[in-house]
Amino acid sequence: MKQTPEDLRFAGDFAEALRPHIAEEKERGRSLKQIAERLGVTEPALKKYLGGKTTPCLRTVVLAYDRYGVSVPYSGVSFAGSVRGKRRRGQTRNSSPLQQLFLPFEIQTPRPEDRLALKLLPTGVSRYQLQVTLRLAR
After folding, report:
1. Domain that includes residue 10, residue range
2. What secondary structure does DSSP assign to 8-37, as a single string?
3. Per-residue CA distances from 10 to 3, 24, 28, 106 (Å)
């Protein structure tokens, strides 16, 4: 998939925000391979992210937020994860990676007279599927 200029800007901003945390981890004696494992990536992938030329996947962004508090907006839009209580910079939780992730999005109908219905349908324990129904006006 071709990277857009926004993707490359995000990759550079993400790298800049992540580098100080990686440097701290190295000062604590952790290898780049160990740090990469904490972020759920390989060492070569982490090097690419730190170089600012590769856009990380959403999972890596979420884990960087969870582990280090790194939050970088994409095209002016930021995400916020649910956090139990306030954390100080660099402090991690003992729980699994982010339990919830809020991503802004918008749904529009083709015309104002069209009807849009949204339903959350349970698909499992604490899992839901968003059902969108669009009824076009005649």
Report:
1. 5-80
2. HHHHHHHHHHHHHHHHHHHHTT--HHHHHH
3. 10, 22, 28, 21
Whether 88 and 41 have beta carbons less than 8 Å apart is answered as: no
Counted residue by residue, the chain has a size of: 138
Helix intervals (H) in 28-129: 32-38, 43-51, 58-68
Number of domains in the chain: 1
136 within a domain of the structure (yes/no): no
Q: Is residue 122 part of a domain?
A: no
pLDDT of residue 124: 80
CATH number at residue 23: 1.10.260.40
Q: Is residue 69 part of a domain?
A: yes
Q: Which letter, b or e, does each residue of 85-117 get, where b requires 16 or more Cβ atoms within 10 Å of its Cβ?
A: eeeeeeeeeeeeebeeeeeeeeeeeeeeeeeee
State the pLDDT confidence band at 83, using cuts at 50, 70 and 90: very low
